Amino acid sequence: MNVIEAIRTRRSIGKVTQEPIAKETIELILEAGIWAPNHRLTEPWRFFVLSGDGRRKLGGALASIAVAQAAEGLDAAALEAKAEDARKKALRAPVVIAVAVEPAERKDVIELEEYGAVNAAIQNMLLTIHALGLGAVWRSGEPCYHPLMNEAFGLRPQDKMLGFIYLGVPDMAAPQAKRASAASKTTWIGQ
Predict the structure, then answer these.
(1) 44 within 8 A of 114, measured Cβ to Cβ
(2) Helix (H, G, I), strand (E, B), or coil: what is residue 161?
(3) How far apart (Å, rounded) are the C-alpha atoms in residues 43 and 156?
(4) What pLDDT score was predicted for residue 73?
(5) 96 bridge partner residues
């Protein structure tokens, strides 16, 4: 599959089987991530590969955050139900790659560019996953950025988890997608 085809046909695949993914395949995906462009060559990405019982690390963090964010006045049973629902999210795929940004602490480094580099790494990984015939979805949201997530993964306060790539063998058809034309989003200057 060429890169243009991969870009146009890649879709989020939120439903995958629990079939294991070979370590060599995961390493190939991670290798694609580290070749993302990044200003000042700081390589600000950090990957955590969670499989099997290792996914419990994410489940525990999600549960702690769910309880911390729960409405006041919930009884113990309701809090445990919220925690259990959050824990289960980590088990939706046989492999979860947690991706964090660790911004360099240098005067010549713009922090926002560090985030851009890690987002580009995630895109490289998603395109590689698609080219390999696997399925993935990049999940993010408020729990990613919660201090308890940083604590669970040993990240510094200035670091951020930017998302979780849920990876597996697709168990659904790729959804159709539509985009506005590039022309509708482009202003040509000097043409």
Answers:
(1) yes
(2) strand
(3) 16
(4) 81
(5) 50, 166
What HEC string does the chain produce?
CCHHHHHHHCCCCCCECCCCCCHHHHHHHHHHHHCCCCHHHCCCEEEEEEEHHHHHHHHHHHHHHHHHHCCCCCCHHHHHHHHHHHHHHCCCCCEEEEEEECCCCCCCCCHHHHHHHHHHHHHHHHHHHHHCCCEEEEECCHHHHCHHHHHHCCCCCCCEEEEEEEEECECCCCCCCCCCCHHHHCCCCCC
Cβ contacts of 65 within 8 Å, gap of 6 or more:
86, 143, 146, 148, 149
Q: Where is 172: in which H helix or E strand?
A: none
Name the pairing type of β-strands 160-168 and 95-101. antiparallel
Is residue 99 within 8 A of residue 46, CB to CB? The reply is yes
Q: Across the 191 residues of the chain, what is the mean pLDDT of every consecutive 10-residue run?
A: 93 98 98 97 98 98 95 88 97 98 96 98 98 98 97 98 98 94 96 69
Q: pLDDT tens, 61-91?
A: 999 999 999 978 889 999 999 999 999 999 9
pTM: 0.95
**Tokens coding 105:** 């602490």
- The H or E element that residue 42 is part of is none
What pLDDT digit, counting tens, does each position of 28-41 carry? 999 999 999 999 99
